[in-house]
Amino acid sequence: MLTSENPSSTLSAGDTSEAKKTGADRKMDVSRYDEQARGVNAPIYAYYAEKIKQATAITSGVCLDVGCGGGYLGLALARITDLNFIFMDRSAAMLERADRHIIEDGLQGRARTLPGDVHRIPLEDSAVNLVISRGSIPFWKDPQIALKEIYRVLAPEGRVYVGGGRGTPAMQEQIAADLKARGIAPPKDRPNREGPPRRMMKRDYNEILQKTGIPFFSVIKGDDGMWIQMCK
After folding, report:
1. DSSP H or E stretch at residue 208
2. Does domain 3-231 have CATH number 3.40.50.150?
3. Mean pLDDT in residue range 171-196
4. All residues at 6 or more sequence positions from 93 whose CB lies less than 8 Å from its CB, including other chains
């Protein structure tokens, strides 16, 4: 239970030109990332989608997937709910993938992509019923501003479930074995590596959320990652 202070338009093909790609687009092997997300890493998204469904009990209305990448978490949630989706990301290359997956999954009538930044979400107040995100939070330059923006676009009785993780330890072991079988070296010593995931786990999100003035939230760190829940 949450407690106070505790824990339509899609992009055109031209938008993915080299000139318009972000620095992250150019550094990331988008094709390889997308292949793994839709393949060996797919159980991760299914796992968190089920957790979100159980934790929020929101199965209809509009869901905003923040920093969606190729839309992987939202797509998994779409399979088990009647929600409509807005997939938002700064990366034109990843939104192109999301557009492709919307068609592949037959969600043209329920989903659209939206270029945007979590620090200034291009939606009206109270526009969505659920906000989700997996893996984008470590890259937020100012999480206090980002969380206030998420709360702004949340409708009354809406819920938020954002954070990051790679599933349970058992899932991580299985994925590492699958990657090894494919000749792909799995990430090593992830808990001890510096970088965005490490920064996420080190940040004091309880303190950050208290500063936002958001009244009801919880922050949970466990063996399946770090997750923030909020309600309005």
Report:
1. helix 205-212
2. yes
3. 71
4. 16, 21, 22, 25, 28, 30
d(CA 146, CA 160): 12
Supply 5's token pair.
């202070």
CA distance linking residue 171 with residue 88, whole number of Å: 27
Residue ranges of domains in the chain: 3-231
Amino acid at 137: I
DSSP-derived secondary structure for 50-100: HHHHHHH---SSEEEEET-TTTHHHHHHHTTS--EEEEEES-HHHHHHHHH
- The per-residue pLDDT of the chain, averaged, comes to 85
Contact 109, 102 (CB under 8 A): no
CA angle 199, 143, 161 (to 5 degrees): 90
Q: 84-99, pLDDT tens digit by residue?
A: 999 999 999 999 999 9
Token pair 């239970």 is found at: 1
Determine the residue type at 74. G
Structure confidence at residue 198 (pLDDT): 60
Sheet with 62-66: list strands edge to edge: 3-4, 216-222, 225-231, 154-164, 128-134, 62-66, 84-89, 111-115
